[in-house]
Amino acid sequence: MWHPYAAVPSHAPAHVVSRADGVRLTLADGRELVDGMSSWWAAIHGYNHPRLNRALTDQLQDMAHVMFGGLTHEPAVRLARTLADMTGLPRVFLADSGSVAVEVAIKMAFQFTGRSRLLTVRGGYHGDTFGAMAVCDPVNGMHHLFSGALPRHVFADLPPAEFDEAYLAHLAETVAAHAGELAAIIVEPVVQGAGGMRFYHPAYLRGLRELADEHGVLLIADEIATGFGRTGELFGCDHAGIRPDIMCLGKALTGGYMSLAATLCTERVAAGIGVLMHGPTFMGNPLATAVAGASLDLLAERPWREEVKRIEAGLTEGLAEAAAAPGVKDVRVLGAIGVVETHEPVDVRRVQDVVMGHGVWLRPFNRLIYTMPPYSIGDDLDRITTAMTAAARSLGRGPGRSGT
Predict the structure, then answer these.
(1) What are the pLDDT digits (tens) for 52-95?
(2) Does the annotation list 361 as a binding residue?
(3) Where are the extended beta strands (E) located within 107-227?
(4) Which residues bind pyridoxal 5'-phosphate (predicted)?
(5) Residue 26, annotated ligand binder?
(6) pLDDT digits (tens, 9 = 90+) for 252-295
(7) What is the pLDDT of residues 143-189, one digit of tens each?
(8) Which of 11-25, 49-63, 215-229 bottoms out in mean pLDDT, i.e. has the lowest?
(9) Of 214, 203, 217, the residue nearest 168 (C-alpha)
(10) What is the model's pLDDT at position 397?
């Protein structure tokens, strides 16, 4: 078995999970771990939720799958209407995964404009397929090995955390210099996820919206990691009060139950494209769209804003001591995201041994020990911050080997 971002054989063990319930994972050896990762940020309601289980089993009685070419079904129609209402973007293309959603967004932009170059900012991550890799950070990103095979796009500097008028001027100069060749600007709103878990000022997002309008360029918001409340707003774009021309959604869309993503766009973009040349085999899968609809209903009913605010306060307080650890460069929190950034790449296996010793599951990478817990985390949040602080204090004690 070849695991993600791992060599064969892997330097670190893969722990066998026998059950997932609520916010806890039960390993085959009987250990219970609080999941601080929400299964890569997707299981926002926790595991084994009765509403989501029922949505799947009810749909299974009717059909597990049917092709979407020339056919449709109620769960997909209902989900598309819900997403259109939530985002203000009336055209919805359902895809298999976040990376594919980004590929579809890029195709939309290329077909609409007739141009084939994109602008983004350094430090970003948009997926592992070739179109998505081409707009990930070209130097420090995880896909630098493929740089010679990827299209050359335009990269602005890394967006600062705080507001800086000079950076807005840099964005304006960069967009203006390339406007005639750009199809779109693509960014992760407010939070750069797997590229470094960085947060930036919403004013830069507003500035990009204005620049896109000024130069006749589309704005693509990759909300795959930030969508559905993770940052404290329903979508990252809401921090800036803007709406993109194209939006990518995924991860938490199904509450972590199945792989599903969506690319949404304005009526103007859809009309200008005509026939979109993309059609995944499992597009609009009935099981996935049924559980996604149930997950969004559940999100609308639960007090997620209050839950995320409580998580934000708990992470801020619980990680404060980690900032004083010698190996720590920065501690930052936004919404239900807590990040401990280290000076040097961490030994993944060693950090996981520390946090698992505290009954917690985390997946650190590069120089980051971070958490994005389920919104239903409750009092177990203290266990996560205690484990992260212990991991931070363990840095630099004896020899270790960094990993991914």
Answers:
(1) 999 999 999 999 999 999 999 999 999 999 999 999 999 999 99
(2) no
(3) 117-121, 154-156, 182-187, 191-192, 198-199, 218-222
(4) 98-99, 222, 280-281
(5) no
(6) 999 999 999 999 999 999 999 999 999 999 999 999 999 999 99
(7) 888 888 999 999 999 999 999 999 999 999 999 999 999 999 999 99
(8) 11-25
(9) 203
(10) 55
* 204 assigned ligand-binding residue: no
Q: In this structure, are strands 191-192 and 198-199 parallel, antiparallel, or unpaired? A: antiparallel
CA distances from 141 to 125, 144, 172, 359 (A): 7, 6, 24, 31
**222 among known catalytic residues:** yes
Determine which one of 35, 96, 125, 238 is catalytic.
125
Q: How far apart are CA 123 and CA 159, in angstroms?
A: 8
- The answer to whether residue 5 is catalytic is yes
**Rounded CA separation 99/131 (Å):** 9
In this predicted structure, the answer to whether residue 399 has a pLDDT above a threshold of 60 is no
DSSP 149: G
Per the annotation, the verdict on 47 as an active-site residue is: no
Q: How far is residue 84's CA from residue 118's CA, in Å, rounded to a whole number?
A: 25
Is 107 catalytic? The answer is no
Question: Has 222 been labeled as part of a binding site?
Answer: yes
- Cα angle value 367/224/7 (rounded, 5°): 45
Helix axis angle for 286-301 and 74-87, nearest 10°, is 40
Q: Which of 214, 216, 234 is nearest to 226 (CA)?
A: 234
The residues with which 20 forms a beta bridge, in sequence order, are 25
Rounded (to 5) percent helix, strand, coil in the chain: 40, 20, 40
Pick the catalytic residue from 251, 257, 370, 380.
251
> Active-site residue among 5, 85, 157, 213?
5
Supply the pTM of this predicted model. 0.96
Residue 280, annotated ligand binder?
Answer: yes
Whether residue 396 is predicted with pLDDT greater than 90 in this model: the reply is no
Question: Is 279 annotated as contributing to ligand binding?
Answer: yes
CA separation for the pair 129, 74 (Å, rounded)? 30
> Of the listed 35, 137, 222, 347, which one is catalytic?
222
Q: Spell 249-278 as b/e; 16+ CB within 10 A means b.
A: bbbbbbbbbbbbbbbbbbeebbeebeebee
